[in-house]
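Hello Y.,

Per our agreement to keep a running log of every chain we model this quarter, I'm adding this entry. I've kept the format consistent with earlier entries: sequence first, then predicted structure.
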Amino acid sequence: MPDSYLLGIDLGAGSLKASLIRPDGFIVAEAAAPVTTQIRHFGWAEQDPGEWVAAMSQAVRQVVAGIEPGEIAGIGISAGAHIPVLTDAAGAVLRPAIMWSDQRAAAQAAALHEKAGARIIATSLNRVNPTWTLAMLAWLFEHEPEVMRQARRLYLAKDFLRHCLTGGWETDYSDAVGALLADDETRSWSPALAGLIGLDMGILPPIVPAEQVVGCVTEAAAARTGLKPGTPVICGSNDTTVEFFGVGGNAPGIGGVKLATAGVLFLATQGKAVHPPVSCYPHILPGLYYTATGTNSCASAHRWVRDLMFAEGGFAAMDALASAAPRGAGGLLFHPYLQGERAPYWDPLLRADFIGMTMAHGKPHFARAVYEGIAFSIRDLLGAARALGLDFSTIRLMGGGARSACWRQIIADVTGLVIERTEAGDASFGAALLAGVGVGLFASPQEAITRAVRLRDVTMPNDEAGRLYDQLFGLYKEAQAALAGINHRLHALTQG
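Predicted structure for the entry above:
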């Protein structure tokens, strides 16, 4: 099928994106539709799954408008890990989806770790924390027991979207690990982990390979999206798994940095590398795993500052001002802890800040400080990973932030690493590529990478800039340590 297309769909924290690609990796069309996050309380983050479906219909209809829908050979879907959608016996969604950035389950995560931390890690590779499904469900059992009594099916986010296309109910093993309910030895759900919270395993979906075709587009879904009924749909996987696959993270030592809503650091490993609290997931390629550790606020912090200070000119204006500002932003430091922080601090009560402000600082300095602060946060992740014996031969940059040449150079200078960028570098592309494996356009995941993943550019670190950033990073770390206690006291004073 030389003229076939592949469709990838990815649900991000701020939008749903659809990408139509050819088997050679050329992007034919892209479209996105916004989704909103509700913050009902400090540390909470929820979305309406119905809004996801509407966004999917809008974005997909746009990308298929210029082609014959019957030429789409296969569809892949991805979304953030850990996000549960619960439905009742009639298939109705019982409550908003708790997002991966939500911190409400801190007490439940701590209790689970104290009760069975070693068992959880040994079984499902990862330490329990508030952003993982197991802790979220424990919170729901405690605070919304009626929801759990009514629940008959649990979908993870990408599985719910796929269900709305095919009517099916499945998940892949990487997302099952992300739920912290899977057993790595058996590659199935763990009765022991489910038993920790009293979860009925009957609400958990069957686990299948990520590339397996699990259904076809229904007549109803076709009417909503413009797709052809009967188009094959693969299971898919979480966004980090397909994203890292889609930039060619296919060998031990290859790392990745994602500049998306969260900032995520990846490293491909031969076999599992269990180093809690660094996450460990199964890779798409057989025998490989990857580690992942992340900062909560990356593009989300970027977007927050844009909306606050650069609404008129948007990202382009902000980027131009950041490029014009001096290295070090005139002594202005930024900690991007707008939603608490995951790695390396695992502290939901940390807060963001600008340090060192004077009357001499203007918008260029604030824009630059945001870029540099997030880069320092990525360096923090790198330091924690290296302390565990994990090292990197190269870094592939992905996510929307990778488009900024200024930001790419700052990350190279702050980390001292060579930064590579591929022609395509987001989860919708990776999901589409994986669909090609599932429908047989590629003989293997490795063949998909070889045929469709190409480098666009390489950014080398500047030694002079690196020496300045070494000093600034020391101050960044010192300030973080000094302010952590103040952040905790502020929370106690204002949030109770």
